[in-house]
Automatic annotation (TrEMBL):
Role this protein plays: Catalyzes the oxidative decarboxylation of 6-phosphogluconate to ribulose 5-phosphate and CO(2), with concomitant reduction of NADP to NADPH.
InterPro entries hit by this protein: 6-PGluconate_DH-like_C_sf, 6PGD_dom2, 6PGDH_C, 6PGDH_Gnd/GntZ, 6PGDH_NADP-bd, 6PGdom_BS, NAD(P)-bd_dom_sf, Pgluconate_DH
Top EC class of this enzyme: oxidoreductase
Name under which the protein is recorded: 6-phosphogluconate dehydrogenase, decarboxylating
PROSITE patterns for the chain: 6PGD (PS00461)
Classification of source organism: Bacteria, Pseudomonadati, Bacteroidota, Bacteroidia, Bacteroidales
Family listed: Belongs to the 6-phosphogluconate dehydrogenase family.
Residue intervals of the 6-phosphogluconate dehydrogenase C-terminal domain: 185-475
Organism expressing this protein natively: Bacteroides sedimenti
Quaternary structure and interacting proteins, as annotated: Homodimer.
Organism domain of life: Bacteria
EC number annotated for this UniProt entry: 1.1.1.44
């Protein structure tokens, strides 16, 4: 029996569709599904007799037989839930592997877990790749954005396979390229998901403004998003928003109007914010998007609070065309801030962990297949090609001009929303980040004085060189003992 080119473990939505994608590109694929307590058995048999019938896909119900069906070096892609399930599966696989075999984790694992697994597997003579995969069900089947990192020596063997199933950008380049060592692949995917959180919150706020201030119909809003998708806001999320707003239930009513306003989350947005904090990088907009999902979950509390405060209804006195221009420009500028914050975190992580990330290449990887694919990713790639040490995308000439053009509309929209008591936390967070970034002076001197007053934490003076810290005996009755100076 001919040995398979690659094996897939895990036949949920992503695993099934990746398998079909692989087979369609000419690869012979072995599949196996773990039996989990409480989950119906027979998953493999249903798949091989259903969607995979008469295809070059071989199913196995025994892990040992599955491993033995693969040609050396064995390439096994695990599409299982992140966390403990991945570690448990690795422990089951290790006794069945041979030196040089390659395990690929295609789930949304925490990059620190991937770092640990790379080291663990390499010590045993195997290779481990943490590959972020973005694109959802459609991307898995027709072409995703794939972000592999980990054991670089394995890249040569898996590159033809992974690049064959990746989405292709408009210039034909596969949206899959080596990211770097350790957990870099999953870190980059994590930042991708953080930007995704920001994008989705920004789009929902644009929808909210049009619905509340213009009383736009679903079809009118869908047409607006469709129009925006033809210009500088062109992106996957803008495109599907247009489709969502038009979609009707069997009874002819709009599905969007029947969906409870409670947003779920699976953790990658939270991880993005936590890691940005650990790296000392501001991620205001994305953090706001994460917290807004938390607030949305407080549905009953929000109803009670709304009744308690009885806010005024928005005034319906706005000129549609004018307000839509403000919304479009504010959405665009805020999206630029979201990407700028995300790429700044990537830059800092690259320096902190020695990954030597190619930020231009990462921008190109996100041009196709992934959820945040946007028209301006080519401009992001160009900005980092022209200046690989660029601190913030907002300082690149192209994006500086874009922000300046949008700024008047952006300021006006936020002021309108505040006046009408409409929450637009992500749009306003983005604007305030821009103001803070471009402020040559901030009131942090008072914060430092307060810290020194109550805790002798010291401060720098404008009439002394940077790095020289002093303490003032503010109350006149203390000692000159001072605390050490450091940033946590």
């Amino acid at each position: 029996m001919k040995k398979s080119d690659i094996g897939i473990i895990g036949l949920a939505v992503m695993g099934e569709n990746l398998t079909l994608n692989l087979e369609s590109k000419g690869w012979l694929v072995s599949v196996y599904n773990r039996t989990v307590a409480g989950v119906e058995e027979g998953v493999v048999d249903r798949f091989t007799s259903g969607r995979a019938k008469d295809k070059n896909i071989v199913g196995f119900n025994q892990l040992g037989e599955f491993v033995n069906s693969l040609q050396a070096p064995r390439k096994i892609m695990m599409m299982v839930r992140a966390g403990t399930p991945v570690d448990e599966l690795i422990e089951q696989l290790i006794p069945l592997l041979s030196a040089g075999d390659i395990l690929i984790d295609g789930g949304n694992s925490n990059y620190k877990d991937t770092e640990r697994r790379v080291e663990q597997l390499e010590k045993k003579g195997f290779y481990f790749i943490g590959a972020g995969v973005s694109g959802g069900e459609e991307g898995a089947l027709n072409g995703a954005s794939i972000m592999p990192g980990g054991s670089v020596d394995a890249w040569r063997d898996v590159r033809p396979i992974l690049q064959s199933i990746a989405a292709k950008a408009e210039d034909g380049a596969p949206c899959c390229e080596w990211i770097g060592g350790g957990g870099s692949g999953h870190f980059v995917k994590m930042i991708h998901n953080g930007i995704e959180y920001g994008d989705m919150q920004l789009i929902s706020e644009a929808y909210f403004i049009m619905k509340a201030l213009l009383e736009s119909s679903n079809d009118e809003m869908a047409d607006c998003f469709s129009h925006w998708n033809e210009g500088k806001l062109k992106s996957y999320l803008i495109e599907i928003t247009s489709h969502i707003l038009k979609y009707k239930d069997a009874d002819g009513s709009y599905v969007i109007d029947k969906i409870l306003d409670v947003a779920g989350q699976k953790g990658t947005g939270k991880w993005t914010v936590i890691n940005a904090l650990e790296l000392g990088m501001p991620l205001n907009l994305i953090a706001t998007a994460v917290f807004e999902r938390t607030i949305s979950a407080w549905k009953e509390i929000r109803i009670e609070a709304a009744q308690a405060f009885n806010r005024e209804a928005p005034k319906k006195t706005y000129v549609t065309e004018q307000l839509l221009v403000e919304v479009e420009n504010s959405l665009y500028a805020s999206k630029l801030v979201s990407y700028a914050q995300g790429f700044s975190v990537l830059k800092q992580a690259s320096e902190e962990f020695g990954w030597m990330l190619d930020l231009a290449a990462i921008a190109r990887l996100w041009r196709g297949g992934c959820i945040i694919r946007s028209a301006f990713l080519n401009n992001i790639a160009k900005a980092f090609e022209e200046d690989p040490q660029l601190f913030s995308l907002l300082l690149a000439p192209y994006f500086k001009d874009e922000i300046l053009n949008a700024l008047p509309y952006w300021k006006k929209l936020v002021s309108v929303a505040v006046r009408e008591e409409l929450p637009v936390p992500a749009v306003s967070s983005a604007l305030n980040y821009f103001y803070s970034l471009t402020a040559s002076w901030l009131p942090a001197n008072l914060i430092q004085a307060q810290r020194d007053y109550f805790g002798a934490h010291t401060f720098e003076r404008i009439d002394l060189p940077r790095g020289v810290y002093v303490h003032t005996n503010w109350k006149g009755d203390g000692e000159n003992t001072k605390s050490g100076s450091y940033n946590a």
